[in-house]
Amino acid sequence: MERSICIHGHFYQPPRENPWLEFVEVQDSAFPYHDWNERIMAECYAPNSASRLMDGDGCITDIVSNYEKISFNFGPTLLLWMEQEAPELHEAIRKADARSVGLRSGHGNAMAQVYNHMIMPLANARDKLTQVLWALQDFRYRFHRAPEGMWLSETAADVQTLDLLAEQGILFTVLAPRQAAKMRKAGTDRWEDVSGSRIDPTRAYKCALPSGRHITLFFYDGPISQAVAFEKLLDSGERFAHRLESGFSQDRKWNQLLHIATDGESYGHHHKFGDMALAYALHYIEEKKLARITNYGEYLAGNPPEYEVQIYDNSSWSCVHGVERWRSNCGCNSGGYPSWNQEWRKPLRESLDWLRDLIAPLFEAKAGEYLAEPWSTRNGYIDVILDRSDASLKAFFTKYGRRELTLSEQTMVLELLEMQRHAMLMYTSCGWFFDELSGIETVQVIFYAGRAVQLAEKLFGVEVEKSFKERLSKAKSNIPQWQDGGRIYEQIVKPVVVDLRKVAAHFAISSFISDYGDSSGIFSYQVRKEDFQGRQTGEAKAEVGRISVKSGITLDSADFSFAAIHLGGHVFNAGVRNFQGASVYEPMKQGFLEIFEKGDIAELIRYMDKEFGVESYSLLNLFRDEQRKILEIAFSRKAEEFEDAYRHLYEENKTLMGFMRDAGMPVPKGFMAAVEFNLVARIKKEFTKRDLDGGRIKDIVHDAGEWHVALDSGVEFMIRRKGERLIGRLKKTPYDNDLLMEFLAFLEILTAMPVEVNLWIMQNTYDEIAQHAYGDLLDKANRGGEPAKKWIEAFRRTGELLFFNIKAILAPYEKKEQAA
Asked: With 70 as the cut, is the pLDDT of residue 817 above it?
């Protein structure tokens, strides 16, 4: 009988975007990366698209895509972010699925996933349907085919959800073994109890549904999946392969499918180099012919279910109590804070349910004025989410509108649909998964609720926020500082709320730093200058103008006038008001500029208060990324002063302090702080220069070793980016010998650095250059070309320093040359 192996990776991150900006703002906990999406992409999603196979000496023999060989699903909201922020990786994942279709008898590796990781058994029928329809359309948009399978968030399942999947053409899904209740051979009457994870995971099962439809269920191998996720099985690719093989049994008389399912982040983020263990295990299985690598669709096509199964309704893979983890204090948590409780889960869900149910009939009534079928329109809104172009919007309103809508009516419809979108995003499962109400995942779902609240009050003219906060206050934090959900809403969510006026204020202040053109994008908004005047006296700057601000999401727009001053450093002040016509704007502008040119700042502030009211805007009101940018610029001058002071302290005292150190005496902590600050700053500065000085860098590294100063992750990040820029330039002009030698010199310097630099992107780029240029230059070198010979020699040395097995990695191109 045939033995097949399928490894499934569930690749998912919760949506992290600021709901008002549609942008993931900087997250300091992800340092040195901008945010957690970017960090996990670098540690997991990208490495799995180009994973390394290594020889016994730790050198690369091949670069392979794991996505071509494993079953996988990506969260649609994660792919939406990836499409915008990492389009090359997004395309690599799509292409890997397309190649898998050819490798797996017409069945692709990619599965769909319910749209924003909502716990389906806890969702109402409308939300369930929209989640599935959005998931289907998102999948077709990205992978250019219909999905055969769909992943359920946390594998949380009930019969109603399974019936919905079947109704929409989904053939199968994957569940945990403990979700199976009974099984029987098709055509027989006797059911066998398989509770307690006793179901055989090596075959497919047919699940009959109340509608008369059916769906195929695969129950993954629990012990091996557990070992991958939590028992360090990924420490060895070979051991991983043999553990998979151990799941087969000679006693079974059918074509066995050994399959596992874990979070995809196991392969690189949770377990460093887990992607390489996965790549090697797959390579080893195929090389040793231990089993056939397959995916669920291919196996199902050749092995239709011969057994039927019944499941436990409201069950999941990550809560032994069913789905209680997402609505009660069931005892399931991360385990880091034993004194904490999760009583907050119930009132949080109840608050969101109240909000959802309050706005549903209001949405239906208001939307019904403009749309023939409001809820069907919501189901079709995914087309706009995926493509917000003018042509897409026109087609959308033509399809769903009762008639041709005016621009203001289109805005209202879009706001209604955005309210509904955020009313679903607020149910993203991670909001309940962890331990604390004030955690970033839970606050994120409250952000989404806040956006729904804002739109509801604007659209319907009813009080929503006060009642919502009162209900949210019943959710109690474990941290005294935060008290409850109402306080979290007031102190964390409210300050983030954005309207068009706040966008105008952001423009007014950030325009001192950012060089905006006549029309500029600020996150999901477009700002157009109608008039703009600037003045400068010494360090003080003033700007006054008239702008139009438009939302790229809802098309809502307004005109504003503003006046702003920058007194140097981080001191900004701006006033903003709705544009009241030229007769009001022009005298305000003239008066503002005249007072500024007189240099009377106090009078200027009084004038701004008179014109714009006492509500002014400062650096604190800027969106986080721009705020950070301005603070870094403002601090850079002070940082130079600090560096100079620490350098002098170090240079003047290092001989004496060195003697104290060598004599075994404790070196003053203040001096050691100066040593660390000085050496880290100097090494960073060296790697910002265009031309590297290897001798100077070597001296700094020597001093760091003498003083036992560790070079932090920020240093590694800076060195890495320097190398990536160098080889990026080489990729554009691969025949440039001087540039190749410059990159080679950089790598030679790294050999003396006490920092483990992530070479992943540099290695990938080297491999691309080899594919496109090595054969051509090898041909020229073989015909006696001296520059080509030098290039070949330097390129091979470069590969060695990038830890390639040169013989293995360049052999295909050399064989082509020999054949020619």
From this structure: no
Cβ neighbors of 455 (< 8 A, separation 6 or more) are: 415, 416, 418, 419, 422
Nearest to 719 by CA among 676, 749, 678: 749
Distance, CA of 546 to CA of 806 (rounded, Å)? 61
- Pairing assessment for the beta strands 110-113 and 150-151 based on DSSP bridges: parallel
Query: Where are the extended beta strands (E) located within 1-43?
Result: 3-11
Residue among 517, 636, 518, 510 at smallest CA distance from 576: 510
pTM of the predicted model over 0.85: yes
The residue among 35, 37, 42, 27 whose CA lies nearest residue 721 is: 42
Quickly list DSSP for 582-622: HHHHHHHHHHHHHHHHHT-HHHHHHHHHHHH-S--B-GGGS
Contacts of 132 (CB under 8 A, 6+ apart): 114, 115, 150, 164, 165, 168, 170
Q: How is the beta sheet containing 540-551 ordered, strand by strand?
A: 519-522, 525-537, 540-551, 557-566, 572-578
SS3 264: helix
Nearest 10 degrees: Cα torsion 681, 683, 685, 689 = 180
- For residue 627, the one-letter residue type is Q
pLDDT tens digits, one per residue of 614-669:
789 999 999 999 899 888 877 777 777 777 887 887 788 888 878 888 888 888 88
Tokens of 33: 């990366």
Number of helical H runs and strand E runs in the chain: 30, 19
Phi/psi at 623 (5° precision): -65, 150
DSSP string computed for 547-560 = EEEEETTT--EEEE
pLDDT reported for residue 720: 94
- As a whole number of angstroms, the distance between CA 577 and CA 563 comes to 9
**Strand 60-64 to 51-54 pairing:** antiparallel
Residue 422 phi/psi, 5° resolution?
Answer: -75, -25
Dist CA 81 CA 150 (whole Å): 20
Q: What is the largest CA-CA distance in the chain?
A: 96
Q: Residue 341 and residue 320: Cα distance in Å, rounded?
A: 17
pLDDT per residue as tens digits for the range 341-365: 999 999 999 999 999 999 999 999 9
Measuring CA to CA, which residue among 728, 811, 738, 814 is closest to residue 779? Answer: 814
Structure tokens at 45: 């999603």
Ordered alpha helix ranges (H), 72-124: 76-85, 87-103
Give the number of other CB atoms < 10 A from CB of residue 625: 17
